[in-house]
Amino acid sequence: MLQLYLIRHGIAADRHPQTYPDDRQRPLTDAGVKKTRKIAKRLAELGLHFDHLLTSPLIRAQQTAEILVNAKLSTKPEISATLAPAGELQDWLTWYNTIPKTGNNGDVAIAVVGHQPDLGQWAEQLIWGEVREKLIVKKAGVIGVNLPDDGEIIGQSELFWLVPPRFLL
Amino acid sequence: MLQLYLIRHGIAADRHPQTYPDDRQRPLTDAGVKKTRKIAKRLAELGLHFDHLLTSPLIRAQQTAEILVNAKLSTKPEISATLAPAGELQDWLTWYNTIPKTGNNGDVAIAVVGHQPDLGQWAEQLIWGEVREKLIVKKAGVIGVNLPDDGEIIGQSELFWLVPPRFLL
């Protein structure tokens, strides 16, 4: 079994052309860091562990991934440009196709940290093969998708978890 | 805002033609009662409260609904034949169309206790307008759907929560 966790970055500073002329540099707020830490702690308490942790190169996503690592949910995150805003699922699948599909205990768990609306759209493509924008994914929210062990995964995956952050605090 | 929680009954006794010649009489097991109580407690801790609680007439569903009431998640449940196995969403909508769409604090929360694969199929019809059987709904699992305040709800609703029971214990 292969489980994919799509995790949206935590609450970040507001867009501001003077303070953050480059939107990619916008950091998590102090409250965002605190809340994301609580959520990471809860995910660890639920027994989650990720064999792979990929993150968008944007600062707010990288900070979120670091918080997950500090909660012992995974080891060092890998930066993937495919997870930047407007990244394409098909490009991410190029990476996905290179990794071994069995882990130590038989299962493999992958987490990706990224942005909306991309994460919800990726999940919809995996599950229904098309985008309908019907999944509500708040900041620091998590989507859990079971990917088939082999063969086509687009439209062939199953949704097992969607959780708003307020239910993880 | 209108929130619909679709809740699958807890773990019940195995089908057995001698002990339970009428499948509708199969009760929750002791372990099923215990686990469902824990989940109900957690739902209450998360701040949930249902203005309406409807249950399938089958014993295992009625017992689950009673546990929700005992956890103060709602008052007395109402039995609805539409929630029995193979019940039709369209028939349930006849009831839904009769209730007021605003509550004390503006929002209305409705919970229905029923069976698989029906609950997952109803949620899919509400969200995507069609059934694909791609939602994993374990016993005592919960699906949360936001229904639009007015107009068509089939294919116009949004999924905000899907939770396996192991993440509610």
Mean pLDDT score of chain A: 95
Output the CATH class name of chain A.
Answer: Alpha Beta
Helix content of chain A: 25-40%
Biggest β-sheet of chain A: count, sense, barrel?
6 strands, mixed
Which oligomerization state do the chains in this entry correspond to? homodimer
The CATH topology of chain A is given as: Rossmann fold
Features:
homodimer; 169 residues; alpha/beta; Rossmann fold; six-stranded mixed beta sheet; 4 helices; 6 strands; 28% helix
Description:
- Two copies of one chain form a homodimer.
- In chain A, 28% of the residues lie in helices and 19% in strands.
- By secondary structure, the first copy, chain A, is an alpha/beta fold.
- Chain A has a single domain, classed as Rossmann fold (3-Layer(aba) Sandwich), CATH 3.40.50.1240.
- In chain A, strands 3-2-4-1-5-6 form a six-stranded mixed sheet, with helices on both faces.
- Chain A is globular and about 50 Å long.
- Chains A and B meet through strand 6 of A and strand 6 of B.
Record the SSE blueprint.
Two copies of one chain form a homodimer.
Chain A: E1 2-8, H1 30-45, E2 52-55, H2 59-70, E3 78-79, H3 89-96, E4 108-114, H4 118-128, E5 142-147, E6 158-163
Parallel strand pairs in A: 1-4, 2-3, 2-4
Antiparallel strand pairs in A: 1-5, 5-6
Task: Offer a quick outline of the entry.
2 copies of one chain form a homodimer. With 169 residues, chain A is α/β, with parallel strands linked by helices.
